[in-house]
TrEMBL record:
It comes from the Bacteria. InterPro entries: FTP_domain, Peptidase_M4_domain, Secre_tail, Zinc_Metalloprotease_M4. This is Por secretion system C-terminal sorting domain-containing protein. Residues 631-696 form the Secretion system C-terminal sorting domain. SUPFAM superfamilies: Metalloproteases ('zincins'), catalytic domain (SSF55486).
Length: 700
């Protein structure tokens, strides 16, 4: 695979990229819906909405409409509309700000002026690794203002710094670190600006541009912790050999090094025999100090002991790359870095940043890990947690919410979902629920948990990391019942329906709706409803729905007739109590002939869906091996059943749209189920025996 990328920082002048052209066949339908519900959305009559972001996912298509005045965006103000697979509006969310006044959108200063003012205030000297400036309308202290929002990262600035500059008066309205940090010990960000050395503009430098040469990838390997050394050893911090080094740095011990595991790195960059921790998903960078290098080498084996800085580099690379492959290739959820155009599609990470502080953060499509006490890059929970912020950001196109600590709880859930799947602790152990088992719960800091006792909203204390534990805890309770992959898919697709002001309760509604859109069983939906309700969230009643299977194929008898079976087990009726009665028309036992027939499935006789049954001509006995009675469910996300008349064991081969063979096996009877969960989402064709006839199915 080949890829081109660049190291140049993303310097945006103006705001054109924020509301770049997006297209959707549902755009007008969504606008019509918003117009019909304008009073509910509290729309301002002379303001506009512009489609800025479209996401097609397993839960349908989601459109984000930016609130604008004269084409200038109102910061963090949008309406989100989700269409399910039936092209019906299934869910909406809004952060629309109806307290914004109509103001002039013509700035009195240039974007370059705004950047100069921000640079002077931040007073940094190091290489700039990220800088953007966009024109916005904001509500600043209950007054509507036109501002430049300048965001800067530099090697000698710990964090990601936002400066709001009044676009008319040149006044600096606010300066703050907007990075999203891992631990409560530094949860509100850093406030360490360079106040001693005067800023010298002529010294301003940007990260060098990488030449756009073709990049080749090869498999590699690394030694890593899964997910941390205490969990894999079922040890306690302070046991012999299981400490960070008592202030002496990352001291090697036999016990810690013994917990390293050799893993495969599916793709690492090879440029002329020099290997780098870079894949189509993830790339190592020096984003801020200390600069310890990129650990390039002449071998594919990134095998380091714990005391080497390269160990954290390889450990972070493996965990982030592994997580993104799991999301995109196993779960089939479309989610890659999309908020920073300089490296769109690729997550940047720095395994040693924050000037050595004991924390880590996500911002602007990048992860930075500190080294205080236990190096954060050594703990899988820290890595997956921080990546969780990135997932939240990308799924929403930059509309991540920290209301009620939603993104903190989401990061904790994502980390715990991974570490619990490793089955390292028994459910009876306190560590079964711990977050940051190596980095926290020790002398470094207290860590967090996913069996937090508080409920929503009475248990909120107004601290995002503490409150986020409510959200992480309830999702892990769902995880324990319906399993990792189902919960992860619903969680991710649900986050994609939220906005920058979504609280935990509305996020719960969104996750459940995503599961409904994806045709989860009524039993799974009820588990979500029960657990979310027990946690204190108020969820709306579920309207009665029914989802049909995909189109089916059957074979007529010798007289050209086919007696309809009971299709109720292939339909999925969903209501609050999971007690809907499913019937069909034509009725069970009705006889139909060769051709296409519409089958209608009813739930409680009131709501319905349709699918097409194709009855094919009966073939002679010698042709039975080429005939499949039916494939179901179709589409499928796991098991595909092949039902037909087979006298002998038959081979099957599955081809993708390129004609490549992707799976094969043996049909062992007249009704055989095969596992296609490892296939990527898409359209496939299955060939039975030596027949030239193929049958189409969809993996989703």
């Amino acid at each position: 695979m080949k890829l081109k990328t660049t190291l140049i920082p993303f310097l945006l002048l103006g705001f054109s990229s924020l509301i770049k052209a997006q297209e959707s066949k549902n755009e007008q339908n969504a606008l019509n819906y918003i117009k019909e519900h304008s009073k509910e959305f509290n729309l301002i009559q002379d303001h506009s909405l512009k489609l800025r972001f479209v996401r097609n996912g397993l839960a349908g298509e989601t459109l984000r409409f930016q609130h604008t005045i004269n084409n200038v965006p109102v910061y963090n103000s949008e309406i989100v509309v989700n269409f399910n697979k039936k092209n019906e509006v299934a869910f909406t969310s809004t952060s629309y700000k109806n307290n914004i006044s109509t103001v002039s959108t013509i700035p009195s200063i240039t974007v370059e002026n705004a950047i100069d003012l921000a640079d002077s205030k931040l007073n940094y000297q190091g290489v700039v690794t990220f800088q953007e400036s966009k024109l916005y309308i904001v509500d600043f202290q209950n007054t509507t203002k036109l501002v430049y929002r300048v965001v800067t990262s530099a090697e000698d600035l710990a964090g990601s710094w936002e400066v709001l500059v009044d676009a008319n008066t040149s006044e600096i309205l606010s300066v703050k670190d907007i990075a999203i940090y891992c631990g409560a010990e530094c949860s509100e960000g850093h406030n360490h600006l360079n106040q001693n050395t005067p800023f010298v503009k002529s010294n301003k430098k940007f990260a060098k541009t990488e030449s756009n040469t073709a990049l080749a990838y090869e498999p590699g390997s690394a030694m890593v912790f899964l997910s941390d050394p205490l969990s894999s050893a079922q040890a306690t911090y302070g046991d012999t050999g299981f400490t960070d080094g008592n202030g002496q740095g990352d001291t090697d011990t036999a016990q810690l090094n013994a917990q390293r595991v050799s893993v495969v790195l599916p793709q690492i960059e090879n440029t002329g025999g020099t290997y780098k921790l870079k894949s189509p998903y993830v790339e190592i960078k020096n984003i801020e100090n200390p600069n310890k290098g990129l650990f390039t080498q002449a071998t594919t084996n990134f095998d380091f002991t714990r005391n080497a800085d390269g160990f954290e580099a390889a450990n972070v690379f493996y965990h982030t790359d592994n997580s993104l492959r799991y999301i995109n290739e196993t779960l089939g959820v479309n989610c890659v870095q999309n908020v920073n155009g300089s490296h769109a599609g690729v997550l940047w990470y720095d395994p040693s940043g924050l000037n050595g502080a004991d924390n880590s953060y996500y911002s602007n499509g990048a992860l930075v890990f500190g080294e205080g006490c236990v190096d954060d890059g050594e703990d899988g929970d820290v890595i997956w947690h921080e990546l969780g912020h990135g997932l939240h950001d990308w799924l929403t196109g930059g509309s991540l919410s920290q209301v009620n600590g939603l993104s903190e709880g989401s990061g904790d859930y994502w980390a715990q979902s991974h570490s619990r799947a490793l089955n390292q602790w028994p459910s009876s152990a306190p560590q079964y629920h711990w977050m940051f088992s190596w980095d926290g719960h020790n002398v470094c800091w207290g860590g967090r948990t996913t069996n937090y006792g508080a409920t929503y909203p009475g248990g909120l204390v107004g601290q995002i990391h503490t409150d986020g534990q409510i959200w992480a805890t309830v999702n892990m309770k769902i995880w324990d019942i319906i399993g990792r992959e189902k919960t992860d898919r619903a969680f991710l697709e649900g986050l994609a329906l939220t906005n920058s002001s979504t609280n935990q309760q509305n996020a719960a509604i969104a996750v459940r709706q995503a599961a409904i859109n994806m045709n989860y069983s009524c039993a799974d939906i009820k588990v979500m409803t029960d657990k979310y309700t027990a946690a204190g969230y108020i969820l709306p009643a579920i309207p009665l729905t029914i989802n049909c299977p995909g189109d089916q194929t059957a074979i007529a008898d010798g007289a050209g007739n086919y007696s309809l079976p009971d299709f109720s087990s292939l339909a999925n009726a969903i209501n609050g109590n999971c007690d809907a009665v499913v019937t069909q028309s034509p009725a069970i036992g009705s006889v139909v002939g060769v051709g296409d027939h519409t089958i209608t499935m009813f739930a409680n006789g009131s709501v319905s869906c349709n699918f097409t049954l194709t009855v094919e001509q009966n073939l002679s006995a010698e042709d039975f091996s080429t005939t499949v009675v039916s494939l179901y469910p179709n589409p499928t996300n796991g098991l595909l059943t092949i039902k037909g008349q087979f006298d002998n064991l038959e081979k099957y081969t599955i081809h993708n749209l390129l004609g490549q063979s992707v799976q094969n096996g043996i049909i062992t009877g007249n009704e055989t189920s095969i596992n296609v969960s490892d296939l990527s989402n898409g359209v496939y064709f299955i060939e039975i025996g030596n027949s030239s006839k193929t049958y189409k199915f969809i993996k989703e």
